Structure formats: C-alpha cells, structure tokens
Amino acid sequence: MDQFILQILNGLDKGSAYALIALGLTLIFGTLGVVNFAHGALFMLGSFCAVTLSKFLSLSHKIVDETRTDFLGNPMEVDVPYVHDWFGVAAGDAIIDWAVPLSLIFAIPIMIGIGYVMERGLIKHFYKRPHADQILVTFGLAIVIQEIVKYYYGANPIPTPAPSAFKGSFDFGVLVGFDANAIIYPYWRLVYFFFSLVIIGAVFAFLRFTTFGMVVRAGMADRETVGLLGIDIDKRFTIMFGIAAAVAGLAGVMYVPINPPNYHMGMDFLVLSFVVVVVGGMGSLPGAVAAGFLLGILESFASTSWAVSNLPGINQVIIYLVAIIILLTRPRGLMGRKGVMEE
User: Could you tell me the pTM of the whole model?
Assistant: First the structure.
C-alpha cells in the first residue's frame, strides 16, 4: 500500500506539469482553433525566466574584507551580491533563496508579452489555414526559440534550487498512518502539485465567473454570433493566447527545482502534452486536466521496477498505448465535443 500511495504521488507530480501545459494548449485550440506546436517552448521559456532572475539576483562585486586574510596575511577579496547592498545582508540572502517563487512575478508580464507578439506577429496569419500548416509553422518557431535559448544559455542543464525552506523530503507515511520513513516525498513536488491546482482553479474560475471569461466561452461555442453582437472577440482571443502562454510559463518556472532546465525540455513535454490533449478531447478544458493527471499516474505505475522487469519499455510507451485505445474506441477523446476529430 505504501508503494501504491508513493506512485500516486509521483503520478500527480508528473500529471501536474502535463495538465498545466495541456490546459494552455486547449485554451489556444478552443479559442483560436490553432494547433500550437510552439507551446512547449513557452514552458521552456518560463523555466529560463527563473534561471535568468536567479542569475541576476546572484550578480556580485568584489570588495576587500579586512577581517579575512590569505595564507600570506593579506586581506582577501570576497564576492558580495548587489542585493546585499540594496536590501541588506539578511533580506538579500532571503531574496536570493526565494528566487524561484519570485520569478513568478517576473515571468507573468514577460510570458503574456511573448504570447501576444507570437499571436499577432505570426499565428494570426494561419487561423484559416489547414492544421498541417499550423503544425509546421509553430514547430519551426519552437525550433528557432530553443536554438536561441541554446545560444545564450548553453546546452547543459542549469540547476536552480528551491528555497531552503522546501528542500528535503516530507514523511507522508506518518501523516496517513504508516510507519516512519515508509513514504518519503520531496517537499517541492508537493508544492508543485498544489501550485498546479491553484493555477487550474484560477483559470476555470476566470472563464466561469468573469464577464470576460463568459464572453470567451461564448466565442468558443459560436464565434460568429458573438461577433455580430458587436464584441471584438478577436481581441479577447488574443488576450487568451497571452494567458495561455503565461500558464505554460508559470508551469515552467515552478518546475525548475524538479528538473534543471535545458533548451530542449519544451520538446520533451510537448509531445506528451499533445497526447494528453487528444486523450482528454480537443477543445475540452476539463478533459485536458483530467487526462493530464490520469496519464501522469499511469506513467508513474508503468515506471515501477515490477512493471519494467515484466514489460520492458512499458514506461516509455504506456501513454501512447492508452491514447491508441481511447482514440480507437472514442475518437473525440474522453470529454471532447461531438464532431471534433470524428470526421
């Protein structure tokens, strides 16, 4: 039972990332009808927002510390972060330590701006083009973005630690009545799971309870009628593209302590997230979220030593096998709208 619970937790961790990326993909497809293969690159850019802010906060200058000497007795030069000069030592150390959560504030306007430029500068020209054209142009854009990141940040992963308050592991087993050390789980992975729930809940609440969101949902159902009412639905859809980019970026920001970011991490998540979207149902937001967590849990169980020893390679293909089965029996996906992908 303890291993079962542990795999559920691991699955929720993976499923959180899948669900957040798939949510943004579905927002874009549901509003604009665009199959955006550059969405994984937005996840990757979000992670590098965290890397950039962390490096910026760690910038330092050298001073001579008279209290410290080298082996010859000469005063030593030491590196002092600029944030120490600006905010003091204690506050400066706290800011550096909490660089990843602070990156959320840094990433939101940047990701919304990138989404706006991407949609206005390129994607709007492909609204009425076939999905194959959309896939080709957005996939090409993703390659360009990742090569730019590779040029400036290098090809190697860049470790970016979580705040010290969330380092280490949590004895989850004791919480649910097991022996001590039976179920040990990293604090930050739990933080990421709850963070994903907050973001998902915020997006659904925004679409359901705000006037803007209601108009967007109406436009998703019948774009022409909403336009005839005098509402600039295209402008609202552009804003939704920016929001979808921000969701992907925030998912990337909080993921960096779990998986050190590199230039191709967007592509690694993109394919799996598209499978999630298709399984959940193209255009279905609840379907994308449910499929993300479901497939994350299945992948976690398929990665156990028992599964891999009895079915070698099952952890690499389980998501695709599930997708094949679901699409053969229900082409629209688990919660897809009737007629979508069923022609």
Answer: 0.87
Instruction: Kindly report each contact of residues 89-97 with a partner whose C-beta sits within 8 Å and lies 24 or more positions away, as own/partner.
Output: 95/57, 96/54, 96/57, 96/58, 97/163, 97/164
CA separation, residue 55 to residues 82, 92, 96 (Å): 12, 14, 9
Phi and psi at residue 80, to the nearest 5°: -120, 115
Task: Please tell us whether the domain made up of 2-56+107-329 is placed in CATH 1.10.287.
Answer: no
User: Do β-strands 60-69 and 75-81 pair in parallel, antiparallel, or remain unpaired?
Assistant: antiparallel
Closest CA to 115 of 10, 41, 57: 41
DSSP 94-153: HHHHTHHHHHHHHHHHHHHHHHHHHHHHTGGGGTTS-HHHHHHHHHHHHHHHHHHHHHHH
Strands 169-171 and 75-81: unpaired
Residue 321 CA to chain centroid, in angstroms? 24
pLDDT of residue 264: 87
3 state DSSP class of 68? strand
Return all residues near 121 (Cβ < 8 A) that are at least 6 apart.
none
Residue 103 reports pLDDT greater than 60: yes
CA 202 to chain centre: 15
For 144-172, write each residue's pLDDT tens digit. 999 999 999 988 999 999 999 898 887 77
